[in-house]
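Handout, section B. The chain below has 249 residues.
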Amino acid sequence: MKSYQDINKAIIDRWAEQGWAWGESISHEEYIKARSGVWDVLLTPTVPVPHDWVGNIKGKKVLGLASGGGQQMPIFNALGATCSVIDYSSKQIMSELKIAEREGYKIDAIEGDITQRLPFADETFDLIFHPVSNCYIEDVYPVFQEAYRVLKKGGIFLAGLNNEINYFVDSEEKEIIWNMPFNPLKDERARAFLMKEDAGMQFSHNMTEQIGGQLKAGFTLIDLYEDTNGIGRLHDLNIKTYIATKSVK
């Protein structure tokens, strides 16, 4: 039987080929604008990351953690950073390499599993950028542990987190139908639902796991904001389903 990681890798590869929003690379024009100081990046669906969360990264080392697709790393390169990225999806990694070739810079782009030990030395990076993705991971705590290990002291960890609300409700977001936690590896009904929806293997995570997990790993939480799905009934009702966090080592 395939692992849930292998299932997600294949599905995300296909989504990227089909025009997935999180796989749509920035244009040359957006890259040039970023070089002149006009830019935005996303950790969650709709709210741009405050520029002061990123700060001055010229000459700094940045890691995109499950952040492939040619969206954020080209921006950070345009701001003067040296970037590395690790992502499940070969298609997302190919996009990073394609944008780097187009714009004439180098990036260390690695196809890899962030649920495993990261292929970087201790205290390598000044900034880690981790957009919404841990909903595809069963146990998120090791991810925070590894992020803490490879981040320099004083370094910043920026994360997009999916709260449990999206996993309470039915497909039309009208009724609460699911028990928490939502885990397709332990609930055949949940697994069948995800396969029918072509949604990959997804897992709910509460704030104890996600914010508490960062604190347990050693991080200090500095700031946060909330966001909606961007579409759908929960969004229309302005129900926040995502949290972005800024933490420091």
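Note. The mean pLDDT is 97. Compare this with the example in section A.
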